[in-house]
């Protein structure tokens, strides 16, 4: 197929376009807001000492993640293909080399790995939705909730059941294509999730650990900061914003030419960050008031929020709704994890959407067993960073996403000619463009390299 290399005649997308700017914002927000904000951010912050970690996280979100999100959208819209083909195409146009496709390949592998564990964790939230509906948390104290969670993850059959259901739903939705209903769902879901968290905040405050919780989350203790916690903060920023693997790039391919990339990115990044911080503000007071360990790990939210739910009137309904919404937030993220692969199978291998979704989803489902078993049968099998789950999580968040993001900054900032990038970002937004370019060329790539070197101890 002949490709147009003339920037004056932008390529058309192969799978249609978003119906409006709002639809695109909602899709990117749906990708960003997910388990990463409510399940992962609090427990990783807890494991890494709180305040100083949160500060570094915020610096990474706005100094590295935001410019990369803008870069991904602009590359996606310019290429108008799946991330692999887009990078090959733009690489050829801008640098005469298709090797840049590698960025898309790494990203796709990363999406496979992330979704393989993401689906298992989303299964936990479905299980907790049922527990909440059955009023299981009534009268439970922190110890009982700890046992409840321990009992769930000890059972590979239950985990497999929920993981299978969640992957099945994801495959079904992806197979049906970019769906109107989903846009509407995000529009209702994200505000509803925020509303419930604000209500939970009221009950979390009433436990009495509020000051301590805020102190933990926002007072930086730089002595607690190590090279690996700085890396964890950067990895969490990439994970939470869905950047570094081409998910946002794949969505950018369907963005109409006249829409503002800058406004979309700023809105999504701000909302994503606000929700993560809110989750932390709700959870840590409960942790301290109940003498729980902030470094508890992946079970943290499941062992804390039910304590607030039991206190509030209508807790059964609110709890059920909360875990349902959280699973939904996970679903909109899961879809974006699968979209790059599916787009690639369709465009490059002439597969139908349904077959592509089934093939990709089936493979990811099988890969998910490594995570299922990490919490029970294979819990004692530890290497490198810990269990299989620990290793997949570390490899994707802390290494693959930042490495992918680094390559994206190099391409968008150095390889791509400034006329092309200025052309895609709002031409009228002169100073914002200048700021983006400085961040993309210098600040972001240098920061990623320094954080890597620091984590392996090269900087002392
Ligand atoms: N950002 C999602 C979350 O916070 O739950 C997870 C995610 C989605 C990561 C898509 C990466 C991605 F490409």
Give me the oligomer status.
single chain
Number of helices: 19
Q: Indicate the mean pLDDT.
A: 92
Rounded to an integer in angstroms, the radius of gyration calculated over CA atoms is 21 Å
- CATH topology, by name, is Hydantoin permease
| Total number of domains | 1
The CATH architecture term is Orthogonal Bundle
Q: What hetero molecules are in the model? A: 4-fluoro-L-phenylalanine
Q: Kindly estimate the percentage of residues that lie in beta strands according to DSSP.
A: under 5%
Spell the H/E element sequence: HHHHHHHHHHHHHHHHHHH
Structural class designation? mainly alpha
Question: Unreliable runs, pLDDT <50, ≥5 residues?
Answer: 1-8
**Percentage of residues assigned to helices:** over 70%
Largest sheet: none
Given the C-alpha coordinates, what overall shape results?
globular
Give the CATH class: Mainly Alpha
Overview of the structural elements:
There is one protein chain. This protein is mostly helical. The chain has a single domain, classed as Hydantoin permease, CATH 1.10.4160. About 75% of the residues lie in helices and about 0% in strands. The chain is built from 19 helices and no strands. The chain has helices at about 20-30, 35-45, 50-80, 85-95, 100-135, 140-155, 155-175, 180-205, 210-220, 225-240, 245-250, 260-290, 300-310, 315-350, 355-365, 370-375, 390-415, 420-425, 430-455. The model is unreliable at about 1-10 (pLDDT under 50). It binds 4-fluoro-L-phenylalanine. 4-fluoro-L-phenylalanine (PFF) binds near residues 31, 34, 111 and 239.
In short:
The chain has 460 residues and is an all-alpha fold. It contains 19 helices and no strands.
């Amino acid at each position: 197929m002949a490709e147009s290399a003339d920037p004056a005649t932008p390529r058309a997308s192969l799978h249609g376009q978003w119906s409006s700017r709002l639809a695109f914002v909602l899709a990117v927000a749906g990708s960003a807001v997910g388990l990463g904000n409510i399940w992962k951010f609090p427990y990783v912050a807890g494991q890494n000492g709180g305040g100083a970690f949160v500060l570094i996280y915020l610096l990474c979100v706005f100094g590295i993640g935001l410019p990369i999100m803008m870069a991904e959208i602009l590359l996606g819209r310019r290429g108008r293909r799946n991330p692999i083909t887009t990078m090959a195409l733009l690489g050829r146009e801008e640098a005469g080399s298709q090797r840049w496709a590698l960025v898309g390949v790494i990203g796709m592998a990363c999406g496979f790995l992330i979704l393989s564990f993401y689906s298992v964790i989303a299964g936990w939230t479905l299980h907790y939705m049922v527990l909440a509906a059955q009023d299981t948390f009534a009268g439970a104290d922190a110890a009982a909730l700890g046992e409840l969670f321990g009992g769930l993850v000890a059972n590979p059959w239950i985990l497999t059941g929920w993981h299978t259901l969640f992957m099945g739903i994801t495959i079904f939705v992806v197979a049906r294509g970019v769906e109107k209903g989903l846009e509407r769902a995000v529009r209702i879901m994200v505000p509803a999730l925020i509303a419930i968290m604000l209500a939970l905040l009221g009950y979390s405050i009433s436990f009495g650990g509020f000051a301590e919780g805020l102190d933990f989350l926002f007072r930086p203790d730089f002595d607690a900061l190590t090279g690996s916690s700085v890396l964890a903060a950067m990895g969490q920023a990439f994970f939470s914003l869905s950047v570094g693997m081409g998910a946002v790039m794949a969505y950018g391919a369907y963005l109409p030419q006249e829409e503002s990339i800058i406004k979309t990115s700023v809105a999504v990044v701000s909302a994503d960050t606000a929700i993560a911080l809110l989750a932390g503000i709700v959870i840590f007071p409960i942790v301290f008031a109940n003498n729980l360990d902030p470094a508890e790990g992946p079970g943290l939210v499941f062992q804390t929020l039910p304590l607030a739910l039991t206190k509030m009137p209508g807790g059964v309904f609110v709890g059920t709704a909360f875990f349902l919404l959280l699973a939904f937030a996970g679903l909109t993220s899961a879809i974006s994890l699968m979209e790059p692969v599916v787009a690639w199978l369709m465009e490059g291998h002439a597969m139908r959407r349904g077959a592509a979704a089934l093939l990709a989803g089936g493979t990811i489902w099988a890969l998910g067993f490594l995570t299922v078993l990490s919490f029970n049968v294979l819990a004692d099998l530890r290497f490198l960073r810990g269990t299989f789950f620990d290793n997949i999580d570390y490899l994707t968040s802390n290494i693959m996403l930042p490495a992918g993001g680094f390559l994206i900054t190099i391409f968008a900032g150095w390889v791509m000619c400034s006329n092309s990038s200025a052309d895609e970002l709002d031409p009228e937004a002169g100073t914002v463009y200048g700021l983006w370019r400085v961040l993309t060329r210098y600040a972001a790539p240098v920061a990623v390299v320094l954080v890597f070197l620091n984590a392996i101890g090269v900087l002392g």
